[in-house]
Amino acid sequence: MQPSSTQGSRRLLVLLCLNISLFLLLPAHASGGRPNVLWLIAEDMGQELGCYGYPIKTPNIDRLAREGTQFSRAFCSSPICSPSRSAFSTGMYATAIHAQDHRTAQDLKRKLPAGVKTIPKWFEQNGYHTSLMGNPKTDWNFLFSNKEYMGTDWSQRKTGQPFFAMYNFLEPHRWGWSKWPDLATHLDPDTVPVPPIYPDGPVMRQSIAKYMDFIIEMDRKVGLVLDRLEEEGLSDNTIIFFFGDNGRTIYRGKQWLYDEGMNVPLIARYPGLFEPGSVNDELISLIDLAPSSLSLAGCPVPEKMQGKVRFGEDAAPRAKYVFASRDLSDQTQDRIRAARDKRYKYIRNYRPEAGYAASPYLLKTHPEYTEARQAYELGELDEKQSLFFQSRKPEEELYDIEADPWETKNLAEQREYGDVLQRMRAALNQWITESGDVVLSEP
Ligand SMILES: [Ca+2]
């Protein structure tokens, strides 16, 4: 769902002007105290929300979008839980801190490098109370103490103390589906949209309907948190970021570097900074949220953080690219890196011979994969739907996302895209070197 770029640019320009003027008029400390920072984190979720134009009723998150800024080009830096969470919780690429493997065995985990800490630790150092709320998930692929967070609820803070809270929702993560069989809402599988890359079968429809059911449930829970902020008089002095930790979990989404695995919802609300109801089409990586949150709260941004401040008076220049990695994912070893600009996606497969290996986890939890695989073997899938069942991946993939949002037409070998390919290759190479990819750039 890409808004028109011309319209988006105009809106962005207006937004930036408004933001700059409003920010100057109403800095973070205008109310006399430092703002609270609240991260609301959905699991395994793409932009399937009413406010993004998807046919689903999500009134609470839509309300957040109406009161803040909705980002269309927000991306995780790894398309699966633990490397993504390791990254956005430190403001570092997972590949730069030995956290790229999902999930790293406990005895292989390392300490964070000197000068790198988790976001709650940085906030604690700046006098904040920190809490891990909702689903108590860290899922970090590095060694950490049991004191990373000070508590489990912002109510545990001292009088007058600002808080940072990471509030995790389990929904719509797939292994949780069986735990809540009695949701208030059950969508009719016959009414859900099936993307063109997937065969339209009954199990596929059930999987998508279930995913949507859980988004509706997650939206209800977000509403409870927003109501609580309001009741406690905290709405105006709390910076909120709502986002998904990685993309949607249908079999070509989560774990893979297509937009379905990388593109996540991101909505920011902070009265006086984010223009109500605005849309921002600029590239943003989830690793930008840690430095941005610290900066907006008036805390120094640690020198080593690789993410960039994206909002407020200390914002960095706009990003030209976002980058992502995939390595071990459960039981399947692969190595993929990707660069994405506002229009193109470049994917480099280091193990093309591995194909699109389905892990036992995927087979167990994604019944639509088995349905689709059987249809493929019976010759019932079209060309787009068959891509995921090829025994070998291309070494390089290049997609024009504007023309081909589901990334089905690989342009890497087309001569007219040679310049784009070369530019994207160079950008990826530069990122691998400069970010210190521990797998690819160490001797
Ligand atoms: Ca996840």
Tell me, briefly, the overall form: globular
Structural class designation: alpha/beta
Give the cofactors and ligands.
calcium ion
Number of domains: 2
| CATH fold topology of the largest domain | Alkaline Phosphatase, subunit A
| Main beta-sheet strand count, sense and barrel state | 8 strands, mixed
Helix content bin: 25-40%
The CATH architecture assignment of the largest domain turns out to be: 3-Layer(aba) Sandwich
CATH superfamily of the largest domain: Alkaline Phosphatase, subunit A
Mean of residue pLDDT? 91
Segments where pLDDT lies below 50 for 5+ residues?
1-31
| Residue share in β-strands | 5-15%
Estimated radius of gyration: 21 Å
**Which series of helices and strands comes N to C?**
HEHEHHEEHEHEEEHEEEHHHEH
Annotation, overall tally of beta strands: 12
Specify the CATH class of the largest domain.
Answer: Alpha Beta
